[in-house]
Amino acid sequence: MSLEEPEDAEQPAVEGRSLGDELADLLGDHVLTREEHLNAPGFVIRPDEVQDVLFTLRDEAGFDHLSCVTAEEREDRYESIYHLKKYDDPTQEVSIVVPTDKTNPVSQTAEPVYRTADWHEREAYDLVGIEYEGHPDLRRILLPETWQGHPLSMDYEQDRPQLVPLREHANPLQDDHTGEGGDTMFLNIGPHHPATHGVLHLKTTLDGEQVADVESDIGYLHRCEEQICQQGTYRHQIMPYPDRWDYISAGLLNEWAYARAAEDLADIEVPEYAQIIRTMGAELCRIAAHMLAVGTFALDVYGDFTAIFMYAIRDREKTQNILEDLTGQRLMFNYFRLGGVVWDLPEPREEFFEKIRDFLDDLPQALEEYHDLISGNEILQMRTVGTGILPEDVAKSYGATGPVARGSGVDYDLRRDDPYGYYENLDWDVVVEDGCDNYSRLLVRLREVEESAKIIEQCVDLLEDWPEEDRTIQANVPRTLKPDDDTEVYRAVEGAKGELGIYIRSDGTDKPGRFKIRSPCFSNLQTLPEMAQGEYVPDLIAALGSLDIVLGEVDR
Question: Which residues form the NADH:ubiquinone oxidoreductase 30kDa subunit domain (predicted)?
Fold first, then answer.
């Protein structure tokens, strides 16, 4: 640990002083010591002062976005790391490190400060074993309550059989029967596969026909992605896995999240030509994701499969055809590499560009059809306007991002606010709606397709005229990457569903010591009870559809 800031930390200066110095003065005696984290100052605090520190940073320094909570077990301690940002300026970041004793890993909960800490801390308890004092509902979230051990702890025995006593299979509702005079009813929605969202179980309590409470039961698709990445090498073995988080349409966006974090960690500069290709491919994935979101939303709301869903799949297939030409795959692309992309655009280039331009030329008419069939549909409007309300301040407290947050008036998009790739050199707009309802989230996605088309067209113009001798697709990256020991970085990109972030701690080897995935769907799904309470069951289904979650990314 060092008391000095890293030379390469991108920290805004305030009156000649770094952000870290300003925050150190603000936090005063709460700070035990300072750490060097790439792109953000890090402060080590006591486990019983978490709320005091986070309230100070939120209310006095403006850090209103708890982006991620990372937990890990070290040789001599457990650690919780709270990654804080500002919705107004996400380039201002700070990491709050909370070490706890190895024999008694107990830390104060952050849930009263940021509501999103509820699920994040439950995941940390479930997988690592840290307990959060004062947490409103500290129990497992991805694994069954009967699970023994914590899979990301050092002493976890992977081959140990899970022996569950017969009493554990007792009726989970036997103590929940309504007493005399009660009007509530318990309703299981799932676990099934609703449209294409994934395997989800909603434990719903009804008061008459209205939703009194709903709890999302997740974990059915948990595939240990973080542990798999911790066992893979930076250069070659991790990149194929991000495609499988949001497996349905966001492959290149997922790959970019890992690439951005690892390239910062290894100080790799991506060639400008490769950045343009990445930007074009990412926006094609965004259109594919939004087409599926719009089609399945209509399917959820009024069951229209024949027209609207197939219209959306028709246009999604066009983007997938282009992506297949570019990457060789339709879903699991594995196209990005650290330092660039795996190969150049397909030949003949003129035909590839013409195919993209034909798609972009047809897109305005297709979007007009969607507005006629969906946003202008009276049935859908009745079901979505004024339902699933998520106020702006509530969205921020839950760490909501992407179309879910922008549909609630949160003007936050990492492509513009924390620029990467080639976005800052292009002309496009961030789409924001302030209706805070299911309808607003639909409009955001439809309008974002138009903005993605603008970005793609500008990328094609640039690539068409790019000199052949300057078409460098990859930086010169060492065959084996071994970042310095105990270097920590958190980096994020604007995925189709929101902020997709990666935390990496290096341990001096060619594999990460800790690899944490910040899923936008995980935080967005947490808002469902806020949107559904007091609504009717069909409104609950519409709210779930408007979140556009994929459970493969929620569970990871």
Answer: 44-160
